[in-house]
Design brief:
The chain has 362 residues and is mostly helical. Helices cover 53% and strands 6% of the residues. The protein has helices at 18-31, 43-46, 53-70, 87-96, 101-105, 108-118, 136-144, 154-157, 159-168, 182-199, 242-250, 267-278, 282-293, 299-325, 328-357, and strands at residues 5-11, 36-42, 78-81, 174-175, 208-209. The strands form two sheets. Strands 1-2-3 form a three-stranded parallel sheet. A two-stranded parallel sheet has the order 4-5. α4 (87-96) crosses α9 (159-168) and α11 (242-250) packs antiparallel against α14 (299-325). Residues 7-11, 42, 45, 163, 166-167, 175, 177, 181, 184 line the site of tryptophan (TRP).
């Protein structure tokens, strides 16, 4: 039986942090034997926020090295760069003919990014929480009335079409993504159904989020509040050297400590404990939970222990990242192999989609 197709992409907007590693990458590595795995760097998606060209290229290269260093095996999985698959932009054009600008404008991620572009993002709003609804009309006016130097680019609007194509062109059914991408997956299913029913075909399968058995892990940041995220500025990066890493952990937000025995663990401390849990140290975690419960906990000790575990996990990865970055040849071969695999399936899907739509060669 052929393996089910897993696909996930990451925008090349910066170095990978522990949220990417524990929340995604580590799981991807484990999936490689059981699924037909496809992992790619979404550099075309990154263009929607107009990055500096040199920076964009450097970021793409860095993420490839990080994926390889973390254990993605280019012989097992297709590891590729989105822009190496020209079939994607072509199918994107075709699929856009069945996508409504209204539904795109109502997408939470678009609302958020558009407001950011216009400089009117609401405080605390994120891709996931940006709401649609009563302010739709004002929102449209703001976009249409925007001066050209503060425009909301069309690529931002059609971001979900491009993402849907990434998935559908590989006929992937299992798409491991974070919660903030659920709405994009929902749209992907809708576009797939719409295409199938418009042309009376059973062509695109519907994709679903996929956690590979494990419950979705939430990787908290070091600022005592929400999840680790680049825009939150609360990250530990895979490439952070031990000194930087220790410093960041030692500066993590805590509180005054438990005042009475057997109190529920406070949020900032719970965050540090769950990071420890992600390091597969249940006994250490328990030890600090017990100490919290009897009020003997010393946060300095907790931080030191956590920092050392994180150093142990990241050091070999960081060493490999640097080795791989120095080996242009290996990098080139790895992504070439990935692109060849990805293009084989993409070109087949594109050929059939063109046929279905009536774009035929004489
Ligand atoms: N939008 C995703 C993100 O920001 C990245 C992405 C692009 C993606 N294309 C995809 C994820 C296809 C999964 C499948 O995280």
């Amino acid at each position: 039986m052929s393996k089910e197709i897993v696909l996930s992409g990451i925008r090349s907007t910066g170095n990978l942090h522990l949220g990417n590693y524990f929340g995604a990458l580590r799981n991807f590595v484990r999936m490689q034997d059981d699924y037909d795995c496809n992992f790619f760097i979404a550099d075309l998606h990154a263009l929607t926020t107009n990055p500096d060209p040199k920076q964009l290229h450097a970021n793409v290269k860095h993420i490839v090295a990080e994926y390889l260093a973390a254990g993605i095996d280019p012989e097992k999985s297709a590891l590729f760069i989105q822009s190496d698959v020209p079939e994607i932009p072509e199918l994107y054009l075709l699929l856009n003919m069945h996508v409504g600008i209204g539904e795109l404008m109502r997408t939470a991620s678009f609302k958020h990014k558009a407001r950011q572009a216009l400089g009117i993002a609401k405080p605390g709003e994120s891709e996931e929480t940006a709401t649609t609804g009563e302010d739709d009309e004002a929102f449209e006016k703001q976009i249409i009335g925007a001066e050209t130097n503060k425009r909301v680019n069309a690529g931002l609007l059609t971001y979900p079409t491009l993402m849907a194509v990434d998935i559908l062109i590989q006929k992937a059914t299992k798409v491991p993504v974070g919660k903030d991408q659920e709405q994009h997956l929902e749209l992907t299913r809708r576009f797939a159904r719409r295409f199938n029913s418009f042309y009376g075909v059973d062509f695109f399968p519907e994709p679903y989020n996929f956690n590979f058995g494990a419950a979705a892990v939430k990787v908290p940041g070091l600022d005592g509040s929400g999840k680790m995220g680049k825009s939150e500025g609360n990250c530990i990066y895979l490439v952070d050297d031990p000194k930087t890493l220790r410093k960041k952990v030692m500066r993590a937000v805590t509180d005054e400590g438990p005042k009475e025995p057997n109190q529920p663990v406070s949020q900032p401390i719970e965050n540090l404990l769950s990071l420890l849990a992600l390091c597969n140290k249940p006994e250490l975690e328990q030890q600090f939970r017990d100490a919290y419960a009897d009020c003997s906990i010393r946060y300095g000790d907790l931080k030191k222990a956590l920092a050392e575990e994180l150093v142990t996990i990241t050091t070999p990865i960081r060493d490999r990242i640097n080795d791989i970055l120095a080996d242009e040849d290996y990098l080139r071969r790895a992504v070439k192999m990935g692109a060849d695999k990805a293009r084989a399936r993409a070109s087949e899907t594109l050929k059939q989609a063109r046929e279905i739509m009536g774009i035929r060669r004489f």
